[in-house]
Design a protein that fits this description.
By secondary structure, the protein is mostly loops. The chain has helices at residues 4-11, 14-23.
Length: 283
């Protein structure tokens, strides 16, 4: 439960709260389970504060500092978190559905199991964040930094991932059905067994990415760079691969039946055992 004194001080406003924290820096504030819904906490210093199970729905936290804060099971639905600092924060099983996190810093944050449906992460920094098993359906991640983030088993169906940085991210077994990844950066990303059915991958940079056993059926990969990528056993049936760079790629055992390969670069690609567009097997 929240400490009544700490809660009363916070409700006096960010300035009064900052004064108190400055003169009591040895005190660890406890605001757990408090109802802070709908109030204005713009610019508040909440570094390292215990906010477990707190209700922050519809709260204004613009440019607030929540670095290292504990927000497990917190309710942040529709909260205004533009430019907020959540570096290394704990957000396990929290709800951020429909929250606005544009330009926020969540580097190293733990968001495992968090509900992020429809959340706006435009240009946010999520580098190194733990997003295993998160629900990111229809989320806006345009221009976000997800380099080295852990997204295995995450659901990114119909999410906006245009121009996102997923360099060396772990997306194994992730669902990216009908996701928009135009011009995304996927260098050395792990997409083993990922679901990319009907995904839009035009002009992505996915050199050396691991797409083994991934399902890219009916995906649009036009003019993408998949040079030296691992597509062993991948399903590319009826995919649009016009102008794609597959030089040096491993397509061993891949299914390319019905795929459009006009202007594709297959120089030194390994097609052993692959099913070709006409249905024949490459020997």
């Amino acid at each position: 439960m929240a400490n009544p004194e700490h809660l009363a001080l916070l409700k006096m406003g960010a300035v009064r709260w900052l004064e108190w924290r400055t003169h009591n820096n040895a005190v660890e504030p406890d605001l757990s389970e408090a109802d802070l819904s709908g109030i204005n906490l713009r610019g508040a210093d909440l570094q390292g504060v215990n906010l477990k199970r707190v209700d922050l729905s519809h709260t204004k936290l613009i440019a607030a500092n929540l670095s290292n804060a504990i927000l497990n099971n917190a309710n942040l639905q529709a909260a205004d978190l533009v430019e907020v600092y959540l570096c290394n924060a704990e957000l396990v099983d929290a709800s951020l559905m429909q929250a606005d996190l544009r330009d926020a810093n969540l580097s190293g944050a733990n968001l495992i199991g968090t509900d992020l449906r429809g959340t706006n992460f435009k240009r946010a920094d999520l580098s190194g964040a733990n997003l295993i098993g998160t629900d990111l359906r229809e989320a806006n991640l345009r221009g976000a930094d997800l380099s080295e983030a852990r997204l295995s088993r995450a659901n990114l169906s119909e999410a906006n991932l245009m121009a996102v940085n997923l360099s060396q991210a772990d997306l194994s077994n992730a669902t990216l059905y009908n996701a928009e990844l135009l011009t995304a950066h996927l260098y050395r990303a792990n997409l083993t067994k990922a679901n990319l059915i009907q995904a839009h991958l035009g002009r992505v940079y996915a050199s050396r990415a691991n797409l083994s056993e991934a399902d890219l059926s009916k995906a649009d990969c036009s003019w993408a760079n998949l040079s030296k990528a691992n597509l062993q056993g991948a399903n590319l049936s009826y995919a649009y691969l016009r102008g794609v760079n597959l030089s040096g790629a491993n397509l061993q055992g891949a299914n390319l039946q019905g795929a459009e390969l006009g202007w594709a670069n297959l120089h030194k690609a390994n097609l052993q055992g692959a099913t070709l567009p006409d249905g024949s097997i490459h020997r």
